Amino acid sequence: MGIVFSSGWPWACYALLVGYFRRSKIESTLLASLGLAIGVVMYYIFKDMNPAIPAGMESATSVPAGMEVESGASSDGRILVWGIAAFVFGAPLGLMGNVARTPGVGGLLFRLLVPLIAFFEATQRLNVEADSQGQIFVITWNVTRVAACVAAVALMGHAVWSWRVRRSRADGRAEAAAPARPL
User: Fold this and answer.
1) Is the model's pTM score more than 0.85?
2) Which residue in 131, 153, 152 sits closest to 141, CA to CA?
3) Cβ-based neighbour number of residue 151 at 10 Å
4) Which range, 2-16, 68-82, 97-111, 143-157, has the best average confidence (pLDDT)?
5) DSSP letter assigned to residue 20
6) Of 56, 87, 104, 175, which is the most exposed, with the fewest CB atoms less than 10 Å away?
7) Residue 173: Cβ-neighbour burial (10 angstroms; 0-12, 13-18, 19+)
């Protein structure tokens, strides 16, 4: 679980789900931003409390090049960098989650964002980090890629099924509203 939650796609999923379950677009953007920022702070607090590296992993930096905090510093710098990023990117993700509620193809494109992000991130991590991280790392990201594909297919299948049900109900109402013809 540590491997998965140290990546970006579960955080994006959280923000999209916050937006999905809120009716107001303003609430969606604010709550997603605040939730992600609080989540980042809690993540680093718990990471500092238990700094052990999970089995099958080696220590690697989680901050992009050019944004590193000087060595020997606490995770305060990482909290600031990732907290600001979470707050900034949480708003559009929350809004996209709110738009994902739209039935049909328009909402489907936004519902497919999480599987797309998960697949892309897992592929990139396998390409860049797999050699240095070990077998558990490789298995975790391959399972993530498969799960992302299954989720995408399920979302598309649900959209098609919902469209057909709505269409058949509309056809049924049209037939019921038509006057009966005498034989």
Assistant:
1) no
2) 131
3) 17
4) 143-157
5) H
6) 175
7) exposed
